[in-house]
Amino acid sequence: MTEARGSLADAARDLLLGSACVGCGRPGRVLCPSCAASLPRHGRLSWPTPTPPGLAPPFAAGAYDGLLKVLVNEHKEHGVLALAAPLGRVLADVLGDLLAVAAVPGAPVLLVPVPSRRPVVRRRGHDPLLRTGRRAAVHLRRTGVPATVRQLLVPTGRVLDQSTLDAAARAANLAGSMAARPPRAGDRAATLVVVDDVLTTGSTVREAQRALETCGLRVAGVATVAATRRRAEWTGCPESGGFPTAHGAGALTSVYGVRPGPWLRRRSSVRGRARCHHRCLEPPGAPSASRCQSQAKRST
To answer: Which InterPro entries does UniProt cross-reference here (predicted)?
Structure first.
């Protein structure tokens, strides 16, 4: 009901104030049906290059350019609130692919957004990531996934502007910049996913992961709307036809016992998925699970 009221309010605002599609400029809704249909509907592994040590598997819908970049910026910097709905749907699709391989069966899903600092929220007039995350959670719950957004992270200390910093400088700048609130009973049994709008070097989400792990929480993965192109083109394990990217395939079923959404419908066999599951969730260059097992046998 709340979601429906929000959508109606967005539509009324568009009608009264006049608007055009942010993608193509067509008069009408802020995102026309044609542009909305062109948005990616899957998530793919998007390891940063270099990858911060210990980073949980990061999934993104696509590259941070074109329509995805426009949507993120218009929503975040220009307060086009109606874009929260399509961005939330994109993020939900990314989360669906991530959860298909990383969720704890039957466990609740906690979406933990990277925190925004209060002065930034006041300047923008809203918290874009929190708004997008809540829309994504609504979409997931409609498919039977028990997802909720929890603001477990708070910013601490001072962080410099990162627009001109390289990966090493970003990591140093962000070190110790977040803290986690005390977890509730049951949080440690949940599937935790850190969510952000754009994955760049991975330093921000790695810092969020560190803060959560300090409280004894395990992060299953990272989900973002987009990822910058400053990374290796990683499409998953070739043994499964690219699983778990949008172009590949494991024969997945929902771990929540419901009809799988579009992100869970794949073509290839479970055998292929099982063979490469661990390798797919490792950064490029990491030793495969079979290689690790053979080395362990030799050492014993």
So the answer is: ComF/GntX_DNA_util-trans (IPR051910), PRTase_dom (IPR000836)
Q: Do 203 and 171 touch, CB atoms closer than 8 A? A: yes
Q: Show me where the domains of the chain are located.
A: 39-285
Residue 191 has pLDDT above 80, yes or no: yes
**What is d(CA 50, CA 59) in angstroms, rounded to the nearest whole number?**
16
Which among 12, 198, 178, 169 is positioned nearest to 91, based on CA atoms?
198
Q: How many CA atoms lie within 13 A of 215 on its CB side?
A: 19
Tell me which amino acid residue 288 is.
S
CA 224 to chain centre: 3
Q: Residue 134 pLDDT more than 90?
A: yes
Least Cα distance to 137 among 233, 264, 2 occurs for 2
Give the β-pairing of 219-227 and 58-63. parallel
